Amino acid sequence: MKQISVKYQYFENENDGTCERCFNFAQETSINYNMSEKKFHREEYPLDILAEFGLSEQMVYDLPDFVHEIIEFGGKSPLLPLTIEQPFGCTHLYAKFCLVETEDGMDVLFSPKLKEMNLEEFSEREKKLLLEGKVIVSEVEEKFVTEEGVEDVQRIKAFVQIDKDTNSVVYTLTQVIGRNLKNVSEEFDLSDDDLRKLSEGSLVTISEENEEGSPEYITIGVDLFSDKGVVLVPGQVEQWERTVRKSMPEYSFGNDGCWINKHGVLTYVPENEFTKDILDVMERQAKQAGMPMESHFEQEGYGNGHSNSEAEDLSQQITR
Question: Which residues pair with 152 in a beta bridge?
């Protein structure tokens, strides 16, 4: 699997004015990035194709907004449960998906979870760094077809990262990320040591004073799964990690059901199958959002023979 990343990405932090500089820098470079330039739009998803793999319209649209934003910009979904109907029964597996444009229109590219991760071509030190989630620079084998139509293998130098969700290894040519890092270095006056840290998968935080004399921070890092290659986030390391490594919450309620994340394994529960535990979580989230639902539970007799239809009505009141 290969992923080429050629853009910069920034994430807005409402409490930090540095997002404006990240945005301006992205616009001024030859690698433009604009939050309004989406590759895809959720109302145009190929729902018929996704349904063939067990992802109903309700399941897709009940994913959180931040997941849709990733997909709309060309990124991958979380690891989702798929069901494929076979002549002998159904096959169940987990995979991520992204959208791609083809000559015939929009299509879906799936990245299934592999049974095991193959790191044989890397040294013990490189394996350790990769398993820690680091991005490394290493030589990897790449298959190609010669002009004579013969399949051959060549070794290329690349940035490498692993996807622990799918047990896959992705890489991007060093020339691509190197060019991006050069532009970042020139804009933010990075030192040789900063560039070395970035090439070894570490994060670099820079600080500059704003007009009020207060420090403003920008953290820079290489992330091959962002579909941008080099990621700039206003804030320090913790903010970068929270933004780039954002995962599905334990409970994510939509209009028709709820995605539940248990130790990284996602399942979808339609609203007509909500249990008391799920409704309790829904009530807590409603209260935290300033929508106290306690009176509704009391009026509807929640916990005292509450019917399925009443539970559906209640869940809709909270989620819609």
Answer: 144
Contacts of 104 by beta carbon, 8 Å cutoff, 6+ apart: none
pLDDT reported for residue 282? 93
Please, what is the average pLDDT of the chain? 79
| CA triple 132-135-140, angle to 5 deg | 110
Cβ(316)–Cβ(271) below 8 Å:
yes
Cα–Cα separations (whole angstroms), residue 182 to 8, 26, 96, 191, 228: 12, 13, 32, 11, 15
CB 231 within 8 A of CB 244: yes
pLDDT by residue (tens digit) across 128-148? Answer: 989 988 899 998 888 877 888
Tokens coding 175: 């020339």
Alpha-carbon separation of residue 81 from 67, 86, 111, 144 (angstroms): 15, 16, 12, 33
**What global pTM score does this model have?**
0.67
